[in-house]
Write a structure and sequence with these properties.
The protein is of the alpha/beta class. It contains six helices and six strands; from the N terminus they run βαβαβαβαββαα. A six-stranded parallel β-sheet has the order 3-2-1-4-5-6, sandwiched between helices.
Length: 225
């Protein structure tokens, strides 16, 4: 697909650990669609990472993402969960994931979703497939930037490459968001499960409680491990 060719679809790729999936992830996905920035959102839970401990297995996280999406959106709402990294021992990173997606779907245009808090370190990202992956991503990958409190960049968007776009609402509207990291969710859940009521779909909370997740108990009785 050349720059002049209209893409068959515009896809926003939302990658992350999703440990666990929360309402913040749902709102972000919904607002990308509502703001007309993409035709579809693809949620891609990552495989275990070498640089960050993830407490829950990739299969559990993919399962919970499916549960959250299917219980929150209508059957035709274009948000989908993918299992691209389920078979990997470790996540291969953004460059490798996006390279595989572009090779598999050459007529699609892809935007990778990140928070503005990650902009400062983006050019330092690495990949086993290419040297200076971060610099290549900065110059070539299309990024959809989600505003984060304390990391506003609206006043200096001219400093960003043209392949970076800030999520903005349709005219006359505002972006609906919820600032809740998965780490904050886990912290609250461990202290008191009641403190996360309303912060994740009820089916996810029930799943976490049923299998004793994030409470120092084994996942041995979980449906998938």
């Amino acid at each position: 697909m050349t720059e002049q060719t209209k893409p068959e679809k515009v896809i926003a790729v939302l990658g992350g650990s999703f440990d666990p999936f929360t309402n913040a992830h749902l709102k972000m996905s919904a607002e990308i669609i509502h703001s007309k920035h993409a035709d579809e959102v693809w949620i891609v839970p990552c495989a275990p990472r070498r640089d960050k401990k993830i407490q829950t297995s990739i299969l559990q996280r993919v399962l919970m993402a499916h549960m959250a999406v299917n219980s929150s959106f209508g059957s035709k709402f274009p948000v989908f969960v993918r299992d691209d990294e389920v078979s990997l021992e470790y996540s291969e990173g953004t460059y490798s994931l996006m390279k595989k997606l572009k090779e598999k779907y050459p007529t699609y245009q892809f935007w990778f979703v990140i928070g503005t808090d990650l902009i400062a370190d983006l050019r330092k990202w690495s990949s086993k497939d290419i040297e200076n992956a971060g610099m290549w991503l900065w110059d070539n990958m299309q990024f959809l930037l989600i505003p984060r409190p304390g990391y506003e960049i609206s006043h200096r968007t001219e400093d960003l490459p043209k392949n970076h776009r800030i999520l903005a609402p349709l005219h006359g509207l505002t972006v609906v968001n919820q600032e809740l990291s998965s780490s904050e969710f886990r912290k609250r859940f461990k202290a008191n499960p009641n403190s996360v009521e309303g912060l994740t779909p009820a089916i996810i909370l029930a799943h976490l409680l049923r299998y004793g997740m994030f409470q120092g108990k084994s996942e041995s009785h979980a449906v998938v491990q």
